[in-house]
Amino acid sequence: MTIELNSAFVARTLSPYPLQQEASAILSVVVSPGDSLPAAFDYDVAVLGLGYVGLPNMLAFHAAGLRVLGIDRSDRRLAEIRCARVDLTASDRERLSGALAEERFELAADSANLQRAAAVVICVPTPVDAHQVPDLGPLGRACDTAVANAVPGQVLILTSTTYVGTTAELLARPLAARGLRPGLDVHVAFSPERINPGTDSFAHEAVPRVVGGITEECTRRAAEVVQKSTTTVHTVTSAETAEMSKLIENTFRAVNIALANEFADACGTLDLNVTEAIDAAATKPYGFMPFYPGPGVGGHCIPCDPHYLLWQMRRHRRALPVVEHAMNAIAGRPRRIVERAMEFLSAAGRSMHDARVLVVGVTYKPDVEDLRESPALEIVAELLDRGAVVAYFDPFVDELRLPSGQVLRSIADPRAAVPDLAIIHTAHSDLDLEWLSEAPIVLDATYRIDGLPAAVQP
Hints:
Elements: E1 2-6, E2 13-14, E3 17-18, E4 26-30, E5 43-48, H1 54-63, E6 68-71, H2 75-82, H3 90-99, E7 105-108, E8 117-122, H4 137-148, E9 155-158, H5 166-177, E10 187-190, E11 209-213, H6 216-226, E12 233-235, H7 239-269, H8 274-281, H9 305-315, H10 321-347, E13 356-360, H11 375-385, E14 389-393, E15 399-401, E16 407-409, E17 421-424, E18 442-444, E19 455-456
Parallel strand pairs: 5-6, 5-8, 6-7, 8-9, 9-10, 11-12, 13-14, 13-17, 17-18, 18-19
Antiparallel strand pairs: 1-4, 2-3, 10-11, 15-16
Helix pairs in contact: 1-3, 4-5, 7-9, 7-10, 10-11
């Protein structure tokens, strides 16, 4: 495979070390996908953090024939992986089953083992706190660990979505302070993750990856590593550009989802089906990309990542009003769903107080066990605060812990429930919803359910 690297770098200084001189040539690197990285190391790649991003990345590197090591501080997580009790797509679950039987796939909790790997790939969460301020704790600890265990000759690649300048601030500068010069002694780059939990629509190897290094040589060396797990590597002139590219990806999605939610409200006012209208608009073969409304946005991408950009811009006294409005609208969407539930109950002669409400599906997206930032958490909490008697059903989630600490358990048989109102929050692909035909009001917050006579859209 050939990687074409545009090496027209803009000369700049990143204290305490200078970047290499600007070069003007186009550099081609030919590396066979099955080639191992430097044999002086015990492992070709070590992945630090084995969550929803790290574990699929590790499996992709292993599938390419590399010697891989997975590091996670959680003994529980490591035990779950060893027993294959983890939430993965069908293809990755099959990969894990085969990998666990091979010697070149190893797991460990001791971060000192990072010293034994030619490349270290950092995959940790970058959440926001209750005030939508970036929580840099997990990222900072992971970068500190990688820096403390770095050895000459290694390639260190950060994949976690974060603010522009993170790779330089949390990896390159601390490494230089240790006497490991990026671009000479070690190679440091940012390559944003592109994992879509719960879907096999795009194979890991088929998704292009962006790579931007601290120096030109850092980019080249990091691209060699990343191309082991994908067929296409797109290089950019700096780590900062790569960091911004990921913020653009997810902020673009956030703004368009917020817009789709506004269209849903407009269509509701005009008694139109918003999904039908969006599908019609999507027949245009150019200039339009369909986004659909819903009960809110979950996961650790769309509800979190744009706040890293907003937070950084506030430090520069720069407003991004379109992004700010979109994120505020997204944050308010779960409450809007509850308000609409109250309106439908009121129209039926019921108040929310003591009304029996059943929430169907609570994960943040279909066919995963992931509850991170799920709008259902806020919807259920808000319903309870307004006096409703709330139950939920989700075959992927046995127990739901609310922000208050209250714990609910999924009902065993939803057909036995007799709700005054049901809210479809997450429609898992194998979930039979025919039993909801008996419910007097079904609020379809997914905007995608057909065939239920009592179904209404928010």
